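Response to reviewer comment R2.3. The reviewers asked that we include at least one raw input/output pair. We reproduce the pair for Tryptophan halogenase here without editing.
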Amino acid sequence: MPAAIERVVIVGGGTAGWMAAALIARVLGDQVRTTLVESEEIGIIGVGEATIPPIQHVNATLGIDEAEFLRETRATIKLAIRFENWGAIGDSYYHTFGAAGRNIAFCPFHHFWHRAQDRDYWDYDLNALCARDGKFAKLRSDDPTFALPYAYHFDSSLYGRFLRRYSEARGVTRVEGMVSAVERHSERGDITALVLRDGRRVAGDLFIDCSGARGLLIQQQLNVGFEDWGHWLPCDRAMAVPSERFAQTAPYTRSIAHGAGWQWRIPLQHRNGNGLVYSSRHLSDEAAATLLLGNLDGRALDEPRIIPFRTGRARRQWDRNVVAVGLSSGFLEPLESTSIYLIQSAIVRLLHLFPQGGIAPALVREYNRQSQLEYETVRDFIILHYHATRRDDSAFWRDLRAMPVPDRLAAKLELFRASGVLNQDPLDIFMEPSWVQVLLGQGVVPAAHHPLADGVGADELAAQLRDLAAAKRAPVEQMPLHDDFLRACGGMA
Ligand code: FAD
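Raw output as returned:
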């Protein structure tokens, strides 16, 4: 077995590279020496602006002050995604980070709601109520259904710079240069060093491949192969363009479905991020540009940029002494803002399974098992949005409605349709409240509520639901506007 890991080398200085550097520097301290190699000539992907609440764990672990973070990355608060035209043209719903109501006597809240059918499901969801009114405040509550979980929208290039400053201040060495060759162990095939174009050598024991979609080490050297999921998720291109900011900053992302893909709108303090994710088999780049630029609600600040992508994952995300993190490990379109989370999760997994001596095969197997499951559950959740639709206005939607979906998702849908029951898959980051919102929002309604929801009398249930809706509404009235919250943190100037 090779010796202990003393030198960690990260290739790539995008979100993946700098998040890996910052967390390793913070958590492993001087147990390892960390070097990050990046090439300004290649640059970073530079999109990736919406996150989900676990980003708070990264900030807490790094000890980042939230107000400083908001100012430095020109961030805004994200409470939800508003999906428009997904279930049917004209429909909309919020997928929030909250939960409508708590389980009562083992029975999830949505069954009580289903039985009563008294008002809109999202009238019970604090995140949705705040999103609708453009309000935000930090709420503390012992009852998770009265908390207000949130994430951020931020400028990803500013986020990278922020993490770089943090990492360099904690001893990470940054090397600017283009990797042009790789040295490998003659017998084991492990990577031993990166060779830069000017001849410099960066040797290491463990290499983290954060080189983006090219997969410099994991694919180009170790050739682990790629599992392509394009038959389930046919979008293969994005077009991104920034635009002027709105007068009032919404505390949510908008996801607007079109004939052959969907458009994102992400509000930042200084501008809006916009983009169209589309299928090149169904929409030309010219038509995509017309569609995107015609749906901005503000002046474009740049030319649209095309970003081709391939949906799927590296067959082994850890191979020999290389761990792939970020776009080198796989890609799922940003419909549920999961890529930065998958970066975070990969780094935390690596830290959990960090080799104590040499790299034991069992560690690698366990890492790959967990990574595969996590990617697949996110994939299934994204497929759900496309598949559970009543849209039939284009070949794109007709094909997606009719396609066979992965077995795990098919079983989940069948169970929910029949009974309203949802099973939680291991390592699925999306919990029951998320699945319920997207299923109901896309028009998938269970045939019946659960018999346990009949355990309360009709009048009593009506009174409980009325009180709950009022209790959810009450704090919203007292809250500041989202923009006022950002100003109080020193932002928006
Ligand atoms: P990159 O940013 O591509 O960085 C690669 C790095 O490797 C660069 O520093 C480059 O210089 C370096 N490199 C490569 N080759 C060499 C070499 N030979 N020598 C030296 N250095 C080299 N995620 C979200 O969570 N939320 C979102 O809203 C979101 N939106 C997205 C929208 C689109 C259209 C796309 C395509 C992605 C989106 N993502 C989103 C994903 C997110 O952008 C990425 O997960 C994230 O930016 C991580 O990228 P990365 O660091 O892996 O790669």
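The first helix runs from residue 15 to 28. The chain has a mean pLDDT of 96. Further pairs are available on request from the corresponding author.
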